[in-house]
Design brief:
Strand 11 and strand 12 form a beta hairpin. By secondary structure, the chain is an alpha+beta fold. The protein has helices at about 25, 65, 115-125, 140-145, 165-170, 215-225, 255-265, 275-280, 345-375, 375-390, 395-405, 420-425, 445-450, and strands spanning about 45-50, 55-60, 70-75, 85, 95, 100, 105-115, 125-130, 160, 175-185, 195-200, 205-210, 235-240, 270, 285-295, 300-310, 320-335. The chain contains 13 helices and 17 strands. The longest helix has 30 residues, at about 345-375.
């Protein structure tokens, strides 16, 4: 008979707080990040960034930089052995700017030298002649018919539309319509560790790149073509990452450090300054979302019409440079918690939650008004008597009872139909203040009363 011990060491960890394997080295400062790593004979790299947001490049003169003692390599677009383009969504990023620059984040030239100081001086000696062009700095500017074309073709990269059901019918059935435009700014992830990479060629001719990245294999697919090597001759090693948060999804130092290592035959380390990290790297995109929701008073979402525009800086990166997404014509939703979103970003979800909360807040005021009418007979009778000028108790009772029967019916009548009650109730229920009848379905009090068949005898007395 074989006995199996099902109590494993791993199960014994449940309920405990085992320390992270890398925690001790990190808190004691012993861990080596890419920017801390060194190798014998290592060179230091720097980048010459664009001096303009948008400009044609007329000439690049590297003569003075190459002549500086201690400089081992100065590379421009002419020195890229493979295609001078890379990217995740589309190949719209240049390794080194060629015909024009499209943002201040475009690298024009790279240098490898014996020290950081020599590399910086070499960068300052490179002379670039530009022809400045009009820039595009907002979503609205980018989508304007006469906007300067930053990349090849249109500034609008992708337009996606989703439709379901009859949007007009959905809004016609709504007791409540809420419409807002939401905006958010571009946001930097600001990890503590700036972007850094160390590249070297080993004895087997393999280009090794140690870098703070979140996608080493995806990086390799982009690096290999640009440096002119087959995939099996490029190895990307993920060094300890001092914060990423999605920031280190994209190529940063890898291709530039790799090109310099191949050119010089020596290890090359490239570390961004904090300033470079802030202006040269991809950001969380700014969004503009216009959201229109229709809902019944019983909480049923009848229609959603929404449009979202994302903007990136020049390149598509993970997303288009200006993606105009239509989240439109979604009809007959029974769950108020449903989220319609364009991509996975939390920013987008926060807009949807804000819109949903606005709808629920207004509906809550409506429902509370109905609850108040049902639970506060005497006060409600006074309100009805005031607005309809009723003095006969029997007529008042009949009117009140008929009205309770009307407003308790599901789906509830429109807010316009009980405007005269909301005016009074709003002063007693804070949430009801958000329910402004004039914002909703355009039905007058008389039309609503006639539709329901009540108060026909008293309607003519309504002022």
């Amino acid at each position: 008979m074989i006995t199996v011990d099902t109590k494993t060491e791993q199960q014994g960890l449940i309920g405990t707080s085992p320390p992270r394997l890398d925690a001790w080295e990190k808190v004691t400062g012993k861990v080596l990040y890419a920017g801390d790593m060194t190798m014998p004979g290592m060179l230091h790299a720097r980048i010459l960034w664009s001096a303009h947001a948008h400009a044609n490049i007329q000439s690049i003169d590297t003569t003075a930089a190459r002549a500086l003692p201690g400089v081992h390599a100065v590379l421009t677009h002419e020195d890229v052995p493979g295609p001078n383009r890379y990217g995740v969504a589309v190949l719209d990023q240049r390794v080194l700017a060629q015909d024009k620059v499209r943002s201040f984040a475009d690298a024009v030239a790279i240098v490898a030298a014996d020290s950081e100081e020599v590399a910086r001086e070499a960068i300052e000696r490179i002379v670039v002649e530009y022809e400045p062009l009009p820039g595009v700095f907002t979503i609205e500017d980018a989508l304007a018919p006469d906007a300067p074309r930053v990349n090849d073709g249109d500034n609008l990269f992708q337009h996606t539309t989703v439709r379901k059901g009859n949007i007009a019918e959905g809004f016609a059935q709504a007791d409540l319509i809420v419409e807002h435009t939401y905006r958010t700014q571009s946001m930097d992830h600001l990890p503590m560790e700036p972007e850094a990479g160390l590249a070297y060629v080993d004895s087997m001719g393999v280009l090794n790149i140690l870098t703070a990245t979140q996608y080493p294999f995806r990086d390799r697919r982009q690096i290999a073509p640009n440096v002119g090597l087959p995939m099996n001759k490029v190895r990307v090693v993920m060094s300890p990452v001092g914060g990423g948060f999605g920031r280190k999804d994209d190529i940063t130092t890898e291709i530039h450090a790799g090109l310099l290592a191949l050119k010089t035959g020596r290890p090359v380390r490239l570390v961004y300054t904090r300033e470079e990290s802030l202006f040269a790297l991809t950001k969380r995109h700014p969004f503009t979302i216009h959201y229109k929701s229709g809902a019944r008073a019983d909480g049923r979402l009848t229609a959603v019409e929404a449009g979202r525009i994302d903007a990136t800086v020049v390149t598509a990166s993970e997303l288009p440079r200006a993606r105009k997404q239509g989240l439109v014509e979604v009809y007959d939703m029974v769950d108020m918690g449903i989220e319609v979103q364009g991509n996975g970003f939390a920013t987008s979800r926060s807009f949807i939650k804000s819109q949903r909360d606005t709808v629920l807040s207004a509906l809550k005021g409506y429902v509370e008004a109905i609850y108040y009418i049902n639970r506060n007979r005497d006060e409600s009778r006074k309100i009805i008597a005031k607005y309809l000028h009723l003095s006969d108790p029997e007529v008042l009772d009949a009117t009140y009872n008929a009205f309770v029967k009307t407003v308790s019916k599901k789906p509830y009548p429109t807010l316009k139909g009980i405007q005269f009650l909301l005016d009074e109730v709003a002063g007693k229920l804070p949430n009801a203040k958000t329910a402004k009848p004039e914002q909703f379905v355009d039905l007058s009090l008389l039309q609503q009363l006639e539709k329901e068949g009540f108060f026909s005898e008293m309607a003519k007395r309504y002022p």
